[in-house]
Amino acid sequence: MPHFRAVIFDFFGTLSHAVERGRRHDVVADLLGCDRQALIHVLDRSFPVRASGQLGDARASLRWLCRRLGTRPTDAALDAALAARLDAVRADIRLRADAVETLRALRRGGLRTGLISDCTHELPVILPDLPVFPLLDIRVLSVEEGRCKPDPALYLAACARLAVAPPDCLYVGDGGGRELTGAIRAGLSAVRLAAPDLAGHLVFDPDLAWSGPLVRSLAEVVALATGDDPATGDGRAPAATGTSVQG
Asked: What confidence score (pLDDT) does residue 12 get?
């Protein structure tokens, strides 16, 4: 019997490679009438408020950014910047090579699969075009839920939509947004993805308190979730459960 009935994944840095903002963000900055570095600075500092949907829709969020940047683009320029930002975020996303096969293997093993992502308005548009989309039974996106990790409501919503109790769910993430300790406190088990490309990657509010188990690749999650994980000497361990992290 599988150890779990469902596995829930983070998106950025987990199903996808580490995020690096590409040159297409230059186009967004040009259309908004600002320097690229100024735009990146405001984007980074405002991520939680944007990802929780507090600023309204994508257009309202971009208009808010303009006010912070001190720019006043025309309506036409703002529309063009919205399209350019969508293209830029889409270009930044590179799915891990084992993401699709990991999801397929879990589903073949009878497990349900889900996604919880702290994201802004672009991911809900981009996600349906990605090959992982039909392999995810449910998707919980912060910008649509009005809250970010580690809010327990996100994890509990995912479990409810999967029709699986929290103790029967394994959460997998890179640790951004204190997502791992958040999963534990919501009653799930958790494991950190520690892939080589994640060293020094773009991450907000990292899970510095996490001292639990890790995997080096998504493919390792299958054995862990299904109960076929062999004992190893490389730092991997059974997933941390709701009783393993205090506070």
From this structure: 95
Residues 195 and 220 in one domain: yes
pLDDT at residue 20, as a whole number: 86
Number of domains, the chain: 2
Q: Are residues 117 and 66 in the same domain?
A: no
What is the DSSP secondary-structure string of the chain?
Answer: --S-SEEEE-IIIIIBPPP---THHHHHHHHHTS-HHHHHHHHHHTHHHHHTTTT-SHHHHHHHHHHHHT----HHHHHHHHHHHHHHHHHH--B-TTHHHHHHHHHHTT-EEEEEE---THHHHHGGGSTTGGG-SEEEEHHHHT--TT-HHHHHHHHHHHT--GGGEEEEE--GGGHHHHHHHTT-EEEEE--GGGTT---SS--TT--S-EESSTHHHHHHHHT-PPP-SSS--SPB-TTSS--
Average pLDDT of span 184-207: 85
Domain that holds residue 195: 6-18+93-226
